[in-house]
From TrEMBL:
It comes from the Bacteria. Keywords: Lipoprotein, Signal. NCBIfam families: slp. Residues 1-19 form the signal peptide. Transmembrane segments: none annotated. This is Outer membrane lipoprotein. PANTHER family: OUTER MEMBRANE PROTEIN SLP. InterPro entries: OMP_Slp. The lineage of its organism: Bacteria, Pseudomonadati, Pseudomonadota, Gammaproteobacteria, Pasteurellales. It comes from Basfia succiniciproducens.
């Protein structure tokens, strides 16, 4: 391949992995609950981009309140990383009505303004929830994918079509099918 084609190809492919509109990473000062400090609540003007799994949703008069189990988000696509450990919880307020039944147990990324802290409870424990006034959000869909590990396919081809001199040859052996989840 010619060298002058590599750069345009890289630019074209990098455009495929971009955050939804309003969730671009350059605008936000806070992208993790661990980055929030007490001084950030004073001005009520800090921009945040957080994501996670919706634990509960409640429809209020002119807005919808979400309690979200925070997960780290990917830098470019803004998707929550579902395999990672949580770093806390936060409350997000969406303008307008969103059906709570359709939001519960879904994954979401929100962008907005850090407003204040709210003292609540998680079971019997006291907890300080950061409150986010949402300006943009993306609800992600969870998909199941079945796949084979590359090494398993290599072993299968070698056992199936390789030399008969190996003791492990078995015409009925198949690679193990694996399951993973991804957001889209």
């Amino acid at each position: 391949m010619k060298k002058w084609l590599i750069f345009p190809l890289i630019v074209l492919l990098s455009a495929c992995v971009s955050a939804p509109e309003g969730l671009e990473r350059d605008e936000f000062t806070i992208q993790s609950l661990r980055q929030i400090e007490d001084s950030d609540y004073v001005c009520q003007c800090r921009k945040v981009r957080l994501g996670g799994k919706i634990i509960s949703a409640e429809a209020l008069k002119n807005q919808t309140k979400l309690e979200i189990l925070s997960l780290p988000i990917t830098t470019y696509s803004a998707k929550p990383v579902i395999e990672s450990a949580t770093d806390g919880r936060f409350i997000a307020y969406l303008d307008g009505f969103a059906d709570p039944a359709s939001l519960k147990d879904q994954y979401i990324t929100v962008a907005g303004i850090l407003k204040e802290q709210w003292r609540g409870k998680i079971d019997e424990a006291d907890y300080l929830y950061p409150i986010i006034k949402v300006t943009a959000y993306k609800q992600w869909r969870l998909a199941k994918e079945y796949y084979y590990e590359y090494d398993d396919w290599h072993d299968y081809r070698f056992r199936r079509f390789g030399h008969f001199r190996h003791w492990g040859w078995d015409p009925f052996w198949r690679p193990e099918l694996k399951l993973r989840y991804r957001l889209y």
